[in-house]
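Worked Example 4.2. Consider the chain below.
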Amino acid sequence: MTRKEAGFTLIEIAIVVVIIGLLLGGILTAHEMIRGARMHGLANQGSAVKAAILGFSDRFHALPGDSPNASANLPGLANLADRCAGAAGKRGPGNGDGNNRIGGPPELAEDPHSGCKRADELAFAWRHLSAAGFLAGSFDGKGEGVDEAEFNCRASTCPTNPYNGGMLLFFNHQQFTNDFEDPRDDGATNQLSSGRNIPVEVIAELDRKIDDGDPAAGSFRIADFFVAGRGAAGMTRINACANDVNTTTNIVSWNIGGKNPDCGGIFLF
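Applying the procedure from the previous section yields the following structure tokens:
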């Protein structure tokens, strides 16, 4: 007797191939949808925070975190640090010094004139915005939660981006500017960081969506922290978040090919 070997027909194999293709297509589509949702979330966060700052400034004639009258105008600040004398010598828990700089000079941990600690004002900023009702969330206002050295902030102190990177609101010159622009553009301003842990392809798409796509120009830029040879210790040119055009580190495009999963930018306002 002869035994017939059973096997798959061409039709069965074709059906399996089609099913596998549909599964892979669904996975890729879902991944793109998640990435798109996170990018939109980042854009919406930036817009919401900027609108909150404008609303706060209009109502209280001061910046969040820097307001010298916060203890008198906002509820629930009694447990915050009380060490900012301010221009008028006013003291109170949760008060900033009123010098129109969130955190004061970026190179100083403490302002010698007002006694304000930089980390305190950076933490107060989010507490002020939420206490005034301009921003959803509960933030502790504790300077210990701010880690500028790592471009990060605890979730208990600052809002986080969709990739769990803590956002910072500060007076700084973190925005990168290339040498082809007016060098005054690289001066310190009050600005908002996007937080870190953002894949380079997502942050590049965000820049194209809300600005000009140039990481060194416009209202959204790469942060110095993520440029090789700047603030990111150990970061090489291979995995930097933006491409160099020459040896003077003028950057002209996001480094999509580097596939860096840890990038961050600056919203200027």
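The chain is about 30% helix and 10% strand. Residues 13-166 form one domain. Compare this with Example 4.1 before moving on.
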